[in-house]
Design a protein that fits this description.
Blueprint (H helix, E strand, L loop, with lengths): L3 H5 L34 E7 L2 H17 L4 E7 L1 H13 L6 E4 L1 H8 L26 E2 L3 E2 L2 E6 L1 E5 L1 H7 L11 H13 L6 E3 L6 H10 L5 E2 L2 E2 L3 H16 L6 H8 L13 E7 L3 H5 L7 E3 L16 E8 L6 H13 L1 H7 L9 H7 L5 H13 L17 H13 L5 H16 L1
Parallel strand pairs: 1-2, 1-3, 8-11
Antiparallel strand pairs: 3-13, 4-5, 6-13, 7-11, 7-12, 9-10
Length: about 425
């Protein structure tokens, strides 16, 4: 089962990537499409991580593709996040990288800059119908278009309206609220509900919200392959996290840690014990089905009280990438083209991997979406005019950052570190991870 922390962050290290150095496009021996390098234009391997719904949708879209392209054989390699990256690193080191892989932003540079991924733009992938600013999130220097987004999302606050109603507190105006307003609102909910119910989850260890905060402060998580923020801003972040706990806007350290390890359906938010939590917008549907009256989706607060300054951005919920060593690159790119540019594929895949970046596909699927899925689309379209530039792609080693932030935040909440010490440790540990 996926716990809430995993659903929010999915921040795991990728072991074994040193082997990629010997497995770039110019390395000798090995190959994709079966691992023996034999060119067979009709044989492809497709790897992804996911859940039963994603597995079913992916299998169905492959069958639909085979109907129009019967000479192509696509071998399916589904997996779960917990073992996906270990397996992919091992396959890469052994020259057995699948032809088409589902890729995550945290590891895009790890694979792309070591020569494992094909430049999709150079290979002729059509991106003309993608919304402005959405293709760039898959570009890497000296690589080109290393991956194309399988769907888009943006960071969001999720509200359980029932808890707000029970507390007699109005849901804030998300176009004008500030970080202080957030805590004030949460404190009122905690005070006006029975013991054990809180206004908000502890958000100090959530990487996505941390990055929103940094961007509003004029910084970012990365700059030129290194940390893009300073210790003062990190310290202020941890002071804010400590205020959540000290004011009882959110639960104690021990309750927060226990909650983060719960399966999503057993979390404080899903069980009506918390009024507000956070997630990427492609996770709206999963949360919506757990809340009896459905969730309300809000923008994160801003430092100025203006949604125009929220500094959200298009984030690829995940990507499709093609092996640079595929024996069948044209066939692989053709299938990726079907996945991202075909309305037929879009109707099968829906928004489970995020809202389609291709506007023609998005338009084609919206009429068939249920209310929960529409919330994800409508949120992304509502913030579209407010989005800032996409941040720098996570550099090699940056996949460890979620764990770094979580450890520092939890130690601070338990009193082992001061906010200033936590801020410094995050920077030190990140520098070590980035090398």
């Amino acid at each position: 089962m996926i716990d809430r922390r995993t659903a929010l962050a999915l921040g795991l290290a990728v072991p074994g990537l040193a082997g990629l150095v010997a497995c770039g496009p110019n390395a000798s021996g090995g190959g994709s499409g079966g691992g023996d390098g034999d060119a067979d234009s009709g044989s492809l391997r497709l790897a992804w991580w996911g859940n039963p719904t994603r597995d079913e949708n992916t299998t169905e879209v492959v069958e639909a593709y085979k109907e129009s392209t019967p000479d192509v054989t696509i071998s399916l390699e589904p997996g779960e996040w917990s073992g996906y990256w270990d397996k992919l690193a091992t396959q890469t080191a052994g020259g057995d990288f699948p032809d088409i892989v589902q890729m995550d932003e945290k590891y895009l540079a790890e694979y792309g800059q070591r020569g494992a991924l094909l430049d999709l733009a150079g290979a002729g992938l059509d991106t003309a119908d993608f919304v402005e600013g959405s293709v760039e999130v898959g570009e890497l220097p000296e690589v080109g278009l290393a991956a194309i987004n399988a769907g888009l999302n943006a960071f969001a606050f999720l509200v359980n309206p029932v808890v707000f109603e029970e507390a007699g507190v109005e849901i804030p105006d998300d176009t004008t609220w500030t970080w202080d307003d957030l805590i004030d609102t949460a404190v009122k909910i905690t005070e006006n509900t029975p013991d054990g119910t809180y206004g908000m989850t502890q958000m100090g260890s959530v990487q996505g919200l941390f990055q929103v905060y940094l961007r509003q402060a004029g910084q970012d998580q990365y700059k030129d392959g290194a940390a893009g923020f300073d210790v003062d801003t990190a310290t202020k972040w941890f002071e804010w996290a400590k205020e959540i706990q000290d004011s009882e806007a959110g639960p104690s350290a021990s309750v927060s840690v226990e909650d983060s390890a719960q399966a999503m359906d057993q979390s404080l938010f899903a069980t009506g014990k918390v009024a507000m939590t956070v997630a990427w917008s492609n996770q709206v549907v999963a949360h919506d089905v757990l809340v009896p009256e459905g969730v309300t989706v809000l923008r994160p607060p801003s430092m100025t009280g203006s949604a125009a300054d929220a500094q959200l951005w298009y984030k690829a919920s995940m990507y499709w990438a093609v092996s640079a060593r595929s024996a069948n690159p044209e066939a692989a790119v053709a299938f990726v083209d079907f996945l991202v540019n075909s309305p037929e594929a879009g109707k099968i895949l829906s928004v489970e991997r995020g809202v389609p970046g291709n506007l023609a596909v998005r338009e084609a699927i919206v009429p068939d979406l249920d209310e929960a899925n529409l919330k994800a689309v409508e949120y992304l379209e509502a913030v579209e005019e407010e989005l800032g530039e996409a941040p720098e792609i996570t550099p090699q080693g940056g996949g460890q950052f979620e764990d770094i932030l979580t450890r520092a935040c939890e130690d601070m909440l338990f009193g082992t570190l001061t906010p200033a010490e936590a801020g410094q440790r995050v920077l030190d540990d990140l520098a070590g991870a980035l090398g």
